[in-house]
Amino acid sequence: MVLNEGITQLLVQWGSGDESALEKLTPFVYDELRRLAQHYLQRERSDHTLQATALVHEAFVKLLEMPHIDWRSRSHFVGLAANLMRRILVDHARTHDAAKRGGGNHNLPISRAERVRFQPDLDLVALDESLCRLTENYPRKAQVVELRFFGGLSNEEIADVLSFEGKKTSLRTVERDWEFARAWLYQQLNENR
Fold first, then answer.
1. Range of the domain at 102
2. Is the pTM here over 0.70, yes or no?
């Protein structure tokens, strides 16, 4: 397995247009996408119609279709992949809900977010809508939620990703952002019940 530094270098080369780097990266990309898909689908209902393999393939195709990206690290890649998978799953949930004529959704208080990965009744559409509102008002806090909740990154990894996007972000800042965002989303999800 290629070390994180090697992965970052390959990501940078791929982002610069080196297609041979993609060939070397493909096993890593698939492993990361598979890990994220498993992380996501653990939270889905047992009768979910989107399979992990289909989610991985759709995310991989979307990555390939993106214009060249200035990759900074493995965590940056995981954050972007998590965002892609979130969009795929939300779109799938919207389609599924439309087919059911809007039935069957349950809101889940964000205060249970630590245990949410084991909850099959999470309303991804409601969470996504609330997360979009959080992004409008508090973009960094929303990014912390996305990276932690959807990407499965640790607070340390989140601080690393956010530090690349501006000034240095401390671990304590990430922890405060997570606490604030959980409370804010809890209030939003409960108001929309």
1. 4-191
2. no
